[in-house]
Design a protein that fits this description.
By secondary structure, the protein is of the alpha/beta class. Strands 1-2-3-4-5 form a 5-stranded parallel sheet. Strands 6-7-8-9 form a 4-stranded parallel sheet, covered by helices on one side. The protein has a two-stranded antiparallel ribbon with strand order 10-11. The longest helix is centred in the last third of the chain and has 18 residues. The relative contact order is 0.11.
C-alpha cells in the first residue's frame, strides 16, 4: 500500500485502482486544525477526500518519534487512532535490533502494549513481530495469538536492504519463518517496493507498504517494471547512476500515456513522477499475484 506523508496526500485513486493507503498517526496528530475537525465530528475521508473503497491504515509513527527523542505513550496513540478512525492500525512497538541485550524486555513490552491497545482501539489492530530468536518468537506467537485478524512484520528494512549478504539472507529467512508460524493475513512493514513485491508474494504475504514511489520521484527517478529505477531529469545524479536508455523509453512512454502524462511533464513535475511510480507498483503487484501495496 502507498505510504503518504500526513500533509501531502496524492489522489492516486483518480488515476487507477487503489486498495489502501498508509498514514502516520504521529504526523497527523501534529496538525491541530485537522485533529480539531476530526474531534468535532468530521471524518478523515471527508477532510482528505478519500473514497470509501480505499482502506485507511495508520502506523503509530513511533519510529519517527524516536528519531526526535520522543517516546510515544500507548494511551496517546489509542486516542489518535480513535479520533482519526482508520480501518486498520498498527500497534505501537519497540524496535528489537539484532543481538539486542534488551530483546526479551522489548518483546514482553510489545506483547503487553498490543494487548492493551487491542482492548481500547476502534480500528482493527495489527500486532508487530520483529526478527528475534526462536525462543522469543515463540513468546510473540503465544502473546499475539488472540490479538487481531491481521499481523505485521517490522524491523526488517535494515536487514533486507543491507549490502551484507548474510544479513539479507537472515532477513528473508525470518520472513519465510513468519509465514510458516502465522496463518493470519501477513503485512510486511516498509517492504512494498517494486523489487520486493514479487518475492513477498512468493512467500505468501498479503500486503506491504512503502514510500519509495515518492522518494524516487523526489530524486528525479521513475520506476520501470522489472528494470529498477531510472533518472530522467537534469538534476545531478548522486546515487543510482543509471540513466534511462533509448530502448526503455518505449515502455516508459506507454505507461505515461496510460496516465495521461507527457514525457516533459514527467521530467519536470515531481507529483506526476510519483503517480507514475505508484502506478508501476500497481502493475507489479497485479502481475505478482496481487500483494496489496
Amino acid at each position: 500500500m502507498y505510504g503518504h506523508p500526513a500533509t501531502q496526500l496524492l489522489r492516486l485513486w483518480e488515476k487507477f485502482d487503489v486498495k489502501a493507503i498508509m498514514l502516520n498517526a504521529f504526523q497527523l496528530s501534529k496538525s491541530k486544525k485537522l485533529m480539531n475537525m476530526l474531534e468535532s465530528g468530521k471524518t478523515l475521508r471527508e477532510v482528505m477526500g478519500i473514497p470509501d473503497e480505499v482502506e485507511i491504515w495508520l502506523d503509530s509513527g513511533g519510529y519517527q518519534a524516536l528519531r526526535r527523542g520522543i517516546v510515544l505513550d500507548p494511551d496517546n496513540v489509542v486516542k489518535w487512532y480513535n479520533t482519526i478512525k482508520p480501518d486498520y492500525c498498527v500497534a505501537l512497538d519497540s524496535p528489537v535490533a539484532p543481538n539486542d541485550k534488551n530483546a526479551r524486555k522489548k518483546v514482553e513490552r510489545n506483547v503487553s502494549v498490543a494487548k492493551y491497545m487491542a482492548e481500547r482501539v476502534e480500528c482493527s489492530l495489527l500486532p508487530v513481530y520483529h526478527p528475534v530468536s526462536p525462543e522469543l518468537l515463540e513468546r510473540y506467537v503465544e502473546g499475539y495469538s488472540e490479538v487481531g485478524e491481521r499481523v505485521a512484520v517490522g524491523g526488517l528494512i535494515p536487514r533486507i536492504l543491507t549490502v551484507k549478504n548474510a544479513s539479507r539472507k537472515e532477513g528473508w529467512e525470518f520472513l519465510k519463518l513468519m509465514r510458516s508460524v502465522e496463518g493470519r493475513w501477513l503485512h510486511a512493514l516498509g517492504l512494498g517496493s517494486a523489487l520486493l513485491i514479487p518475492k513477498l508474494s512468493a512467500l505468501g504475504y498479503q500486503s506491504a507498504d512503502t514510500q519509495t514511489w515518492r522518494h524516487k520521484a523526489a530524486y528525479g527517478k521513475i520506476m520501470l517494471p522489472g528494470r529498477g529505477e531510472r533518472h530522467i531529469t537534469d538534476r545531478e545524479v548522486n546515487f543510482g547512476r543509471k540513466k534511462i536508455e533509448d530502448h526503455e523509453l518505449v515502455e516508459a512512454l506507454s505507461i505515461a500515456r496510460a496516465l495521461g502524462f507527457t514525457w516533459e511533464e514527467l521530467r519536470n513535475d515531481f507529483k506526476k513522477r510519483a503517480i507514475f511510480n505508484a502506478y508501476v507498483l500497481h502493475l507489479v503487484s497485479a502481475s505478482a499475484g496481487g500483494v496489496q501495496h
